[in-house]
Description:
alpha/beta; 6-stranded parallel beta sheet; 556 residues; globular
Amino acid sequence: MCIRDRVKKWQREVHETVPDADARIIRQLDDLKHLDLNVEPESPDYTIVSKDRAKLGYAWRPAAIKDRDGYRCPDCNELLVNRDGIPVGYDYLKRNKRFCPNCKGALWQADNDRIRRFPLSEYVKRYLNGYFDFFIADEVHELKGGTTAQGNSFGALSSACKKTIGLTGTLLGGYADDIFYVLYRLSPASVKEEGLDYGQVTGWMAKYGVLERVTKTYPQDNRYSKGKKGRTVLKRKPGVSPLVFSRHLLDKTVFLGLEDITDDLPPISEYVHGIEMDEELAEAYQDLEGKLSLAVRQALAKGSKALLGTYVNALLSYPDRPFDNEPILYPDGERVITVPSELPKDKVYNKERKLVELIKDGLSQGRKCFTYCQYTGRKDVTSRLQELLLDEGIDAEILRASVNPEKREEWIRRKVKSGTNVVIANPKLVQTGLDLYDFPQLTFYQTGYSIFTLRQASRRSWRIGQHKPVTVNYLYYRPTMQERAMQLMGSKLEASLAIEGKFSTEGLLALTAGEDMTTAMARALVEGLETDGVEQVWSKLNQANKTCLLYTSPSP
Length: 556
């Protein structure tokens, strides 16, 4: 099972590397019907299906029977009521697939008036159980959902095949439950030994993660005394116990870095470039930061974190686009916090100059450059960067999300053939599935704050088959939210690598830090925490060359 934009690549690579192998892409049920449980293929036979295709099934509709009293179960004729004993309406039944509380019968059925389609994963489980010797699940971290269609599809295929191999380069994203359902579907016995059944993710988090217990109380007048009432909720927080490695991963995983499986891979170097803001930009940023910081402090004093996301994203994006910004509003959508200063568009700012300088230097050495920008929607900077590069005589193109995933590899190949030297894109568009051999220089003009995305996108050029040294550049303005993001990303990256066998003291300590990236960045700025050591953090990561390819298999 592959990501949608990788199926053709897998097919091509199977034909290139496995002698006499047959590799077919499955897109519909008829493509599977030729397979026979009783017939052994004469040569290696690969069946490739995207995770999107594997999960798709038929549409459904409520199956309850309506009468004058309400809706009744079609199996036992019991009147369907809610917890308060009130008959339920049609909206309640169509919101989710439900079952009768009396006879447990399904209260839903296939909708024959819409698409009639049988899920490919379900067909394999029912009619081809045991046919496949191996089930290879690529990018298994994207199938971690406990109740998602893709997660359930992964579970169905895994149970129907003799052995399962899960592949990922980013096992953890900072939370202990990132691997709960993956482990349960691949090796349920080891999780059950902990006394945990499917769905008991809170118990897993209590043992191996970080849970924050929040109790809200309010005064309550009793008849003869005063007291307090309240309710307690558990909040999921970032942080992973290193015991996950020793108890659940050590006997089930093989950790491989690209440097472990080839002697011919070229060197890779990573550089972080802290850039001082132009004087005018610095003043505008400080003004924006001060007004937003005051609003956030006031909100936090009232117990509200609603402004944190707005606060972080506004300060991350403004230095790269200090113009054409809308007023920043409170969560009610009416009151204005501040209007960002409007700076001139016709000026080339320091970070933009640095990007152009790096690209020109790379091109002078015959190295094409792929540039990543996080903000490509309402706060888009890609068009401006393209114009700047074109003005410098550099052929630059923008890869948009509108390019179909299955066609992105061909789109890039066509652009390179036509003379394009620079491609600008959101890292999410290429983080899996694409090998950027023609672009040995990668530059993060903006990084965002997703560990999954950064780890995947930063290694798109450093692949088996690359012959040129690879350089990865990270640009940020100092002292801004971008600098805080770089420091925290480095710390979180070290922590996520620690669980994959690349231990360090800092990484082990960071594993237990129960704070998400948005809150951590906001806290660092609101509380005035220092951000010294960005270069040192990334220098250590660069020296260790810590990129892992993880193969996961069930216990023997």
